[in-house]
Design a protein that fits this description.
44% of the residues are buried. The protein is of the alpha/beta class. It has helices at residues 10-20, 29-42, 59-67, 77-86, 102-109, 121-128, 193-214, 240-254, 265-268, 307-310, 408-417; strands spanning 24-28, 48-52, 71-74, 93-95, 115-118, 134-139, 150-151, 173-174, 177-183, 187-188, 220-222, 258-263, 272-284, 287-292, 315-316, 325-330, 339-346, 354-357, 379-384, 387-392. The strands form 3 sheets. Strands 1, 13, 14, 15, 16, 17, 18, 19 and 20 form a 9-stranded mixed sheet that branches. The protein is globular.
């Protein structure tokens, strides 16, 4: 099995397993750089690229992307801290999403260069009263249909509706912010150029209509993102050339506003491999199955995309030959739904075999309930050609106790028992 345009980096993955064991996330840094290069090759130079940290906020990966010259899209005080530590310039950071907790507001007071995406009239009112002035984008709820797998169209919970725009006028030039443009996000994981173009056209059209209503000339229009990647053998890569030609036209229409794309999955998903070891043989729904030392508690990306039925089968790293049979891969949780693969063609598997799941670089560990059953997080490792670097250490099982304490009554009872 090979991914579109690639061969599994077997030698690097085997060396990572030798050094760090499993379960482990391994990231191909060269693949991330290639994705940025591809975008810059096909998209107009006037269109800015921002990395959405919610796809994977690993500090090491964020540092690579900062070095590639992209901006950062963050949605919490924690992601903002990671972006700054990774080397993104504050002037190249957008704070999006509805989180306006005290921690976020405290961070904003010391970082006036950050641009804020404002999610509602209520939030606009809150930020307008701040004592530090920020540039702001008014997030618009899309008034056009979404073709995304993870859709955020007219029924989305995010953004100001066109009917609410009149309530925004009095806050456009407030002490705490200046509205300089618009933000329209309509969904993610879109694999057709036609779908992407539909979303981008809709975002530009809606932003320009909103600008007319408010009587402003936008400096920035954030089109969101949505560029998908193929997760299954019957899916193909996006046609970036066609998308780039459309963005050329949209950039002229939006001028003098600059267009921005916030991309996450497209930049990091195909760089990631999730490595697990077979613990035992089993059966599931009449099929051959194995149990592995990882599971869905470490693979947030398994949710919502149907990967257990349609995704690329994992690579068997020891490479034994044998007849391919429909096989299920079960995680290590005491949970019936902890099934990672159903009926995918695999050679015979035995305890000790190591499997490498492809396309695992986005919405994996940090989007997962990894503390379920008290499991510590897996290791995270980066590799590029012969270089291998540890990004996150696998903690001991006892690390789940960090930050916790017994109630005083429990401590007294424990002392009496002794």
């Amino acid at each position: 099995m090979s991914l579109p345009g690639t061969q599994p980096p077997v030698a690097s993955l085997e060396e990572i397993i030798r050094r760090y064991g499993t379960p482990t996330y391994a990231y191909d840094i060269g693949r991330i750089r290639d994705q940025v290069t591809n975008l810059k090759q096909f998209l107009p130079p006037t269109v800015e690229i921002f990395y959405s940290l919610k796809a994977n906020a690993s500090l090491g990966l964020c540092g690579v992307l900062a070095d590639c010259g992209v901006g950062a899209d963050v949605a919490s005080a924690g992601e903002l801290a990671i972006a700054l530590a990774a080397g993104f310039f504050p002037s190249r950071i957008f704070l999006t999403g509805p989180d306006r907790s005290p921690a976020v507001l405290a961070s904003l007071r010391s970082l006036p260069e950050i641009t804020i995406s404002v999610d509602s009239v209520s939030e606009l009112r809150l930020l307008a009263s701040m004592d530090v002035k920020h540039r702001a984008l008014l997030r618009l709820r899309p008034d056009f249909c979404s073709y995304a797998t993870c859709a955020a169209g007219p029924d989305s919970r995010f953004g100001v509706t066109m009917d609410e725009l009149s309530q925004c006028r009095s806050f456009l030039h407030s002490p705490g912010l200046k509205v300089i443009g618009f933000h329209v996000f309509s969904g993610s994981q879109i694999l057709s150029a036609e779908g992407i173009i539909h979303h981008f056209r809709g975002a530009v059209d809606q932003s320009l209509r909103a600008a007319d209503v408010l009587g402003i000339t936008p400096d920035i229009i954030d089109l969101g993102g949505g560029l998908g990647i193929p997760y299954s053998p019957d899916e193909g890569e996006l046609d970036l050339a066609e998308i780039g030609r459309e963005l050329e036209t949209l950039a002229k229409r939006a001028a003098p506003a600059r267009l921005v794309l916030e991309l996450g999955r497209y930049l990091v998903a195909q760089a990631g491999w999730y490595l697990v070891t077979v613990l035992a043989q089993q059966s599931h729904r009449g099929r051959t199955a194995v149990v592995v030392d990882g599971g869905t508690h470490q693979r947030g990306d398994m949710c919502g995309l149907g990967l257990r039925q349609k995704g690329f089968p994992p690579v068997v790293l020891n490479g034994r030959m044998g007849p391919l049979v429909p096989t299920d891969i079960l995680g290590c949780l005491s949970l019936p739904s902890d099934v990672m693969v159903e009926a995918r063609p695999l050679p015979p598997l035995s305890p000790g075999d190591v499997l490498a799941f492809p396309n695992a670089g986005a919405y994996g560990l940090l989007a997962s309930p990894w503390l379920f059953h008290g499991h510590p997080p897996p290791a995270e490792v980066a590799f590029e050609q012969s270089s291998i670097q540890l990004l996150r250490t696998r903690l001991a099982p006892e690390s789940v106790l960090d930050g916790q304490q017994l109630l005083a009554s429990s401590k007294s009872a424990k002392g009496v028992l002794k």
